Amino acid sequence: MLATLTTAVINGLRGELIRVEIDVAPGLPVCHIVGLPDAALSEARERVRGAIRNSGFEYPMSRITVNLAPADRRKHGAAYDLAIAIGILVASGQIRRGGGAWALLGELSLAGTVEPVPGVLPMVATLARQGYRRVIVPAANELEARLVAGVEVHGVEGLDDAARLVAGPRGRTAGKAVRRSAVEVSGPRPAAAVARGTTALTARLAPIDLGEVRGQHQARWALEIALAGGHNLLFVGPPGAGKTLLARAIPGLLPPLDDEEALEVTVIESVAGLLDSGSLERGLRRERPFRAPHHTSSYAALVGGGPLLQPGEATLAHRGVLFLDELAEFDRLTLDALRQPIEEGVLTIARASGRVRYPARFQLIAAMNPCRCGYFNDQQRRCTCKTGEPEKYVRRVSGPLLDRLDMQIEMARVPPQVLLKGPMPESSATVRRRILAARHVALTRNGGQPNAHLPGTKVLAACAMERPALRALENFAAHHHMSARSVHRVMRVARTIADLAGRASVSAQDVNAAGSLRDPALPTADALAA
Amino acid sequence: MKARDEWIALASVEGVGEETFPALLAAFGSAGAAFDAVRDGRFQAWFAERRAADGRAPMSRPAVDNLRAAAANPGERLEAITELGLWTYTALDFDYPARLRDLPNPPFVIHGLGDKSTFQGSRHVGVVGTRRPTPQGRALTTNVCARLVECAATIVSGLAVGIDGAAHAATLEHGGTAIGVIGGGHHFPGPRAHIRLRDEVVASGGAVISEHHPDSHPTKGTFPRRNRIIAALSDAVIVIEAPHKSGALNTANHALALDRQVFVAPGRIGDWSTAGALALLRETPARPLVGLDELVADLGYFDSPVATVVMQGDAPPSREAALAMLGATERVVARRLCAGPCGLDLLVTDTGESPAVVSSAVTLLLMRGWAHAVGPAYVAAGPLAA
């Protein structure tokens, strides 16, 4: 008998429909899967056989052919398992379909349980767009799938549950259709082990409150501006200056995602397998992403790619912050690949296995030492780098990338008198309130864009500068021989400073303050530095 | 071949130096005669006689080989010099830089690029220091050189990285004349990063000189010898920052031996960057550099033509007058900077203003040229530094 079912696959961030055809015919008992399956998919036959047997069904002793259409698309992953197993049961007559049309997603274990798969949200969304109204998904992905409106979602724990749903009240299932329980030698699975893809990357950067950061007034202020206006920011300073500490305060300062952004971020996390089902009880994910990949991360990990064209950290940081600690230690090619997303907000990955476009509109916040030993220009400690080494160290970050960092500030180690005597620092809650207010003002004025993304044609109007402010800008630009791009950059930052201060128009003081935030204090050859 | 050319050819033989050159002249009468002696075997006899008398050879084996090669074709050594467009002073020349004759062992030849008249000037000041200065050291170098250039002084230094480079760059930036003394031949003018600086020194009316043949590599020993030339060419030497064992200390000692004035920028006790400078102050008659006005007074440079013009035209305002010209917040920040270099963090803490206000004031001071950014710190400059 022949059975056909519908399931879906992920291509980039979009789901695509896959039709699964199963033919169970007399012949030698073999199972063929055709339609360009990859290794994980070819192994589906073993999982499916185990799952069928351990769920109280018979694995048919016949020739089974599974075809995945369209046949010319390469298919990967284990999300087809459930559809193949149900198909075999239907084609071998063990289930009589009486429950209407279902699309199915899910990976099977040998015990017949249905395991979660990545990318359920976009796959269900595609199924819904194509007119499928009822979808069976793994129970662990149920909340995620329910985010899609207009679809009846059923989460199933095991193959037997799925079989009963497909059979429906009027259909029937052969055999007992009861899962055999496995002998749990290691005891039952702890709940924590069920969530997939939790990453240790950000564990090092446990969030802190800004109230714990003493001194570093300029850096705190710069961070506030950066987060309010979406400007890219670079901290340069010796070890122990507090660069990473400040970065750890970022998650507590970020504004929440709006509806549209939240959907984008949730889809990306779904595809990357990072969605924690617990966090979805209140709907879409609302926290702005904060990603802090280690500097040893590979090109594929940061930019995206790999055999499955997976999204990288740049995409995972979409609508949020990408924090690159030790910027100069990153692989140079990898860093330069970030130039496209910084400008355009998308990443195109073209490989032999296909071509995908991932959104990657992140805000780049980076930190680096001024030289290899870290103490170049330090007032107390001697730089132990050899002559010329500091310049070489800084040159690892290419000029075009540095140019895209709107604010560059140099941090010194906090002097003890500030550390011990300085005023009590503001807490994250206070600063965040200011950031939210300034951001709200900016988004309203700019038509939904943060100041950092204001096009050059609109900056001047947005700044609404009066005569003294214009003169200050003119003086500053002339004094530093600035290009048009740099002038726009100063204006954007000045606009955010004014927003934070609650000023409708940018003042001369805002312009001068913005000017001080791009301090090219990196090591340069003597002749230039002197 | 002229006697002078033979002199140059003999002096440029690698291995014929401070001891051997005069010994050969004394033995054979002239450079030309020395070459003849090498060719006709008298040199061999002299060599054996000296070895027997002193118990050691008067010259090393490679030096003898070099000398033989040069004697076979003395003109060849000169070609490399003319190729680079170098001029040469020999100790025989009447216009040989007079200051160098103060040395007990003046260089036998000086190869140079640039303007020869630079050496005739009346005001030469050496500015030397560590290859790894702190930001403050750099800033002080810039201020000192700017002030000396105003007094029409020529700045002598070593074209090395660090204080040397800062001194040359500041001199050029303020339209002054610089002399760079390099430690190797002209084919090796110091760090590669400074090739442009070398060219600018030459282009702006200064000179770059070396006592070595253009092909000779700088070695560990050539730099201390170079330092004696810097010391001799200068009427006074200013040591900006010198850690222990710094080459700048060597220059200062040469200068003291030559009766030149030596000024040392004192540092904080315990700072590694000025440990050597403090030792110099303790152990030698070198004097501390306490201010630019005091420096100019000690050097006796009151009547400099440039300074007079400045006095007649718009005189730079005094520190108090300058402070009075500033806006309120700028003045608060400027006063703090006058008390010593500090970063934005301390400025915010000490003035009690917000970072936005302080940053804005700092930007204005930087644009006026009344402050310099050095690394993460700001340093008072212009009238504020007076």
Overview of the structural elements:
The complex is a heterodimer of chains A (530) and B (386). Chain A is an alpha/beta fold and 530 residues long. Chain A has 22 helices and 20 strands. In chain A, strand 9, helix 5 and strand 10 form a beta-alpha-beta unit. In chain A, helix 7 packs parallel to helix 17 and helix 18 runs parallel beside helix 20. Chain B is built from 18 helices and twelve strands. Chain B is elongated, with a radius of gyration of 25 Å. Classes of the chains: A alpha/beta (530), B alpha/beta (386).
For the structure shown, list the relevant keywords.
heterodimer; A: alpha/beta; five-stranded parallel β-sheet; 22 helices; 20 strands; 36% helix; 17% strand; B: 386 residues; alpha/beta; nine-stranded mixed β-sheet; 18 helices
Rg of chain A, Å, rounded: 28 Å
Residues in helices of chain B, as a percent range? 40-55%
Which sheet architecture does the biggest sheet of chain B show?
Answer: 9 strands, mixed
The secondary structure category of chain B is alpha/beta
What number is the mean pLDDT of chain A?
A: 85
* Helix vs. strand class of chain A: alpha/beta
List low-pLDDT spans of chain B. 305-313
Number of DSSP E strands of chain B: 12
Computed over alpha carbons, the radius of gyration of chain B is 25 Å
Give the mean pLDDT of chain B.
86
- Largest sheet data of chain A: 5 strands, parallel
State the end-to-end CA separation of chain B.
57 Å
Number of helices of chain A: 22
Distance between the termini of chain A: 85 Å
In which range does the helix fraction of chain A lie? 25-40%
Low-confidence sequence ranges of chain A:
193-203, 525-530
